[in-house]
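Sequence and structure are kept together here, with a separate record for every protein. A complete record is shown below as an example:
=====
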Amino acid sequence: QVQLVASGGGSVQAGGSLRLSCATFAVAYDVYCMAWFRQGPGQEREGVASIASDGTTTYADSVKGRFTISKDNAVNTLYLQMNSVKPEDTAMYYCAAVATGYGSSRCPLSRMTFRYWGRGTQVTVSS
């Protein structure tokens, strides 16, 4: 049974860094597309970054050049490295996954794409 467990959230000052982790269970990294989403207070859940089963990455314009998504098959963990954070990055962050096939480059940042979701981890950025 697929399970996703996000961690690493916390409070950080603007300009600082934070790394989120998502431990995965029963997820084959060469078959699954995985992503990070976030939802701020009173806002819709939005895609932040995705990584396809072939390693292709996609980023929201708001985080390009600041955030990096990666995965480590050896420890079954998805990461989101957040650098130069801003107060507008404050949100609950969620990891998500869906099986898309071996070696696929397809991994759109759309909520409707993903079947499996972890519980969120809160990130708060102070100015």
Observations:
- Residues 28 and 98 are 10 Å apart (CA to CA).
